[in-house]
Design brief:
Shape: globular
Structural class: alpha/beta
Strand order of the largest sheet: 2-1-3-4-5-6
Largest sheet: 6 strands, mixed
CATH architecture: 3-Layer(aba) Sandwich
């Protein structure tokens, strides 16, 4: 019945990713914002927040979008094309799936020294990419709290109680605090 949607503060997540990339790219450069499905409001909110922060801070370099659609092969091909001729720049991967895909592509192309990647979520498969410097940071969306709130929302629905809204905190994960989030 789609009784609830449990997620983090999505526009703020996009803004946080943009703030990280601004810090990682003091001299600017092309940015590729990849993934997320355009028809999904959560992903659109990430994009809005990201673009709003960049606009507010006067970022004048190109921001190219590569949409996700559930077809990893097509997304990877489009992402690879967007990276062509990047020189130096950055990538914001909107979803965890896109983060892993971006890590692999940047590593295979040997771009880790020139392209700063900010991803989404925290999971064990990202550890080697942090250790190798491919992934610079990721936005932690507090999946544990989201799962807890989802179960609670379902319980309240099934017992006829009113659902309650509570904000979910987010955070920044870097190589040196990664273990705290796994």
């Amino acid at each position: 019945k789609r009784i609830a949607c449990v997620s983090g503060p999505n526009e703020r997540i996009g803004r946080l990713a943009a703030e990280l990339l601004r810090g990682f790219l003091p001299d600017g450069g092309k940015i590729v914002m990849m993934g997320g499905r355009p028809g999904v409001e959560i992903h659109n909110a990430h994009r809005r927040g990201f673009r709003a922060f960049m606009e507010e801070t006067g970022y004048s370099f190109p921001i190219v979008e590569v949409a996700g659609d559930g077809d990893p092969g097509r997304v990877r091909k489009d992402f690879s094309r967007a990276l062509n001729g990047i020189g130096s720049g950055g990538v914001y991967a909107i979803t965890s799936r896109d983060t892993l895909l971006a890590c692999r592509e940047i590593q295979e192309r040997g771009l880790a020294d020139r392209v700063r990647l900010v991803g989404s979520d925290v999971f064990r498969e990202l550890v080697p990419f942090f250790e190798q410097g491919v992934l610079r940071a990721t936005v932690w969306k507090n999946q544990q709290a989201q799962a807890e709130r989802a179960v609670l929302a379902l319980y309240r629905y099934l017992t006829g109680r009113q659902a309650e809204w509570e904000p979910i905190g987010i955070g920044v994960v870097l190589r040196n605090n990664l273990e705290d989030f796994l």
